[in-house]
Amino acid sequence: MTEKKTTAGAVPRHVAIIMDGNNRWARKRLLPGVAGHKAGVDAVRAVIDVCATEGVEVLTLFAF
After folding, report:
1. Using the 8-state DSSP alphabet, how is residue 5 labeled?
2. 10 touches 55 (CB < 8 A)
3. Is the pLDDT of residue 21 over 80?
4. Residue boundaries of the structural domains of the chain
5. What's the pTM?
């Protein structure tokens, strides 16, 4: 995940993310589906860290 620092604007109070595409991501790279889910977990951890650091109060994650 590429980190970008913003210099202007308010931090949103609530961020919602619909997680989709882990299997497609893995398939495109000729990897097993579990590799896509592992990459998804890594991405979610990074998002959680950024939201905590930047002061986002609520993070909603929808996975299916």
Report:
1. -
2. no
3. yes
4. 20-63
5. 0.76
